[in-house]
Amino acid sequence: MAKIQALQFENGMLRLIDQRKLPVEAVDFICRDYREVEFAIRDMVVRGAPAIGATAAYGAVLAAMEFQTQEGPQFHQKMHEALDVLNRSRPTAVNLMWAVARMRKILIGNEDNTPVQISELMKSEADRIYRDDVDTCKQMGEHGNGIVPQGAVILTHCNTGSLATAGYGTALGVVKEAHYQGKDIFVYADETRPRLQGARLTAWELVQEKIPAKLIPDSVAATLIRDGKIDLILVGADRIARNGDTANKIGTFMLSVLARTYNVPFYVVAPVSTIDPETPDGSGIDIEERDAEEVTRIDGVQIAPEGMDVFNPAFDVTPHENITGIITEKGILKAPFEGKIVELTRDND
Ligand code: MRU
User: Fold this and answer.
1) Tens place of pLDDT for every residue, the chain, 349 residues?
2) From the CB of 200, is ligand 1 less than 6 Å away?
3) What spacing in Å lies between the alpha carbon of 146 and ligand 1's midpoint?
4) Do 188 and 230 touch, CB atoms closer than 8 A?
C-alpha cells in the first residue's frame, strides 16, 4: 500500500494532498508561497491539528525563501507579517500557533545571521517539526494500543489518521497499531457532518489499510453505544486546556456524554503540541465558525431553502470530567488531569 503523505516539502515547494477532493480524486495542491499555504489551511485543503502545524511551518520556510534577498530589517519585518498571516489561518487547532511560534523563535533568536542563513535554519526547524510528528504518532499508537482490548469495537469521529498528521495519525494511529498487532478490532466511523471527514477521509484510510469497519451517520452512534455495541471511543483533539477540557470536531462532546452515561471508555489521543498550557479551561478556547454553505449545500447542491440562517461551529469542547484518559507520546494521563497536563508541556517549546 502506498504511504499516505498529507504534506511533503520538495524542490522548494509544498505538496499537499487536496483533501477537499478525496476520496473521488487523489490530486495534489502545490503551494509555491506562504499565501497559498495560508489559503490551503483556511480552505481545508489540508486539515487536522498536527498536519496544519507542520504545513504552517513550511509556509514560514516559503516566506523566508521569498524574502531572503532583502536587507536584514526588511527581511525581519516581512517575515513577522508572513508569520502573523499564517497564525490567523484557522483559530482553534493550537498546533498551528505552536508551530508558528517555533518558527518565530528561530527568526528572533538569530538576528545576527543573514537572511539566507535564517532561511536554512527555518527549513531545518520545519523538517524537525515534521519528523517529530511522525515519531510522536508512532509513540501514541504504541501507548494507546495498551488500552485496546482484543476484539474491541471502536468508535471514531472525524479524521485523525495519516491525512491529519505528518504521518500515521493520532486516534486512528492507535486503531492502526491495534490492527497491526492482530487484535481483531472493528471500527464504526462517524461520517462527521458537515465536512464529512469521517466518510471522505477516515473511510478512505480504513479501506486502504483493510481494517474491518462500517461507516455510520453521526446520529447512529447513540443507538450503538446504548446497545452495548461499542467497547471504546477514540477521538483526536485540536486544543487541550490546562484542566483537560478538549476542543475537537463538532459532535465529539455529544459522544462524550453518551460514553459517560453508558460507561464506555472515552480517550483523547493527541500529541503534547496540542496542549495549550496558557488556556486554563475550555471556555477560553476560540471555536471556529465556518461558512453557512457547508450546511446548506452538499458538493455544491443546495439542500436547504434560500434565506435559512445557519449556526456552524467547526468544533466543540468536551469537559474533562467526560474523558477517561489522554493518550500522548509521553504516555497515558488518567483523570483527574490538573497539574499532570502542565507538567507534560514543560519541555515542549
Ligand atoms: O476541521 P478539521 O478537519 O481540521 O478538524 C480536525 C479534527 O477535529 C481532528 O479530530 C483533530 O484535528 C485531531 S487530528 C489528528
Assistant:
1) 568 899 999 999 999 999 999 999 999 999 999 999 999 999 999 999 999 999 999 999 999 999 999 999 999 999 999 999 999 999 999 999 999 999 999 999 999 999 999 999 999 999 999 999 999 999 999 999 999 999 999 999 999 999 999 999 999 999 999 999 999 999 999 999 999 999 999 999 999 999 999 999 999 999 999 999 999 999 999 999 999 999 999 999 999 999 999 999 999 999 999 999 999 999 999 999 999 999 999 989 999 999 999 999 999 999 999 999 999 999 999 988 978 998 888 865 5
2) no
3) 23
4) yes
| Ligand 1 neighbourhood includes 6 CB (under 6 angstroms) | no
Asked whether 19 lines ligand 1 (CB < 6 A), one says no
Instruction: Tell me the C-alpha distance between 303 and 22, whole Å.
Output: 21
152 close to ligand 1 (CB < 6 Angstrom): no
**How far, in Å, CA of 162 to CA of 169, rounded?**
5
Dump strand ranges (E) for the chain.
7-10, 13-17, 28-31, 153-156, 186-190, 213-216, 232-235, 239-240, 246-249, 266-269, 297-298, 301-302, 315-318, 325-328, 331-334
CATH topology of domain 7-137: Four Helix Bundle (Hemerythrin (Met), subunit A) (1.20.120)
- Ligand 1 atom at shortest distance from the alpha carbon of 95: 12
User: Which top CATH class is 138-348?
Assistant: alpha beta
Domain ranges in the chain are 7-137, 138-348
- Bridge partners, residue 275, by sequence: 240
Structural contact between residues 321 and 337, judged by C-beta atoms closer than 8 angstroms: no
State in Å: Cα 164 to ligand 1 middle: 7
Q: Which atom of ligand 1 is nearest to the CA of 235?
A: 10
